[in-house]
Amino acid sequence: MNFFKNIFSRNKKEENTKSTTPKIEGIYSDEYFNGRYAEDLLMKDDVLVDGSIKMIEGYFIDNNIVPAIKSPVYHPATIDQAVNDGLGFHQYCKLFDQDDQQIGLALTIAFSYYMIKEHGFKLYRDTTPEFPLRFMTLKYNNDGGVISLYPFEYSLKVLNGESSFNELLERIKANLKTIPTASEFVDSIKKNLSEDSE
Questions:
Q1: Rounded to two decimals, what is the model's pTM?
Q2: Contact, 95 vs 138, CB < 8 A?
Q3: Hey, where are the domains in the chain?
Q4: With b meaning 16 or more CB within 10 Å and e meaning fewer, what string describes 145-179?
Q5: Which of 6, 143, 166, 168 would staple 181 via disulfide (CB 3.0–4.6 Å)?
Q6: Chain centroid to CA 80: how far?
């Protein structure tokens, strides 16, 4: 499963030194955010959502594999199982003449739908992505403090065997408890500035 190897070849040493704690990457105005991002509503009856979920369900039925978590079948642990068990989701989708982008998108939509339904994330299209694979972003907003994920890019990492959706889910759940609100962040900066001036 090295079909995405070139896309994700990076310095592993650099990757291993990264902290799993969220970092502050910037402060954005509402005007900037609204100009750059457009929300995509994923509903159960949406063709992309329905099709992605049916492909995952079909994978388990056609391969006589019992899902790790039956409900919802789009749980990250179950998606990981579809990618790794039996024939593998990639090869299964190839039997239906789907290309790599369609396969990655099916996993992206299923994972995104889970994060929206279970954890309150929102899915956005980025009109000016910093990298080509980051045209979709999942965001969780804690009163101004935001966690961002790039589900399509991450789906390709999962397909390439470099990570798993469930691993990401566990990191996210840990970080959701610690993400500061915008006012807490500002208060922290003010406190640090007053301590530095003493």
A1: 0.81
A2: no
A3: 29-197
A4: bbbbbbbbbbbbbbbbebbbbbebbeebeeeeeeb
A5: 143
A6: 13
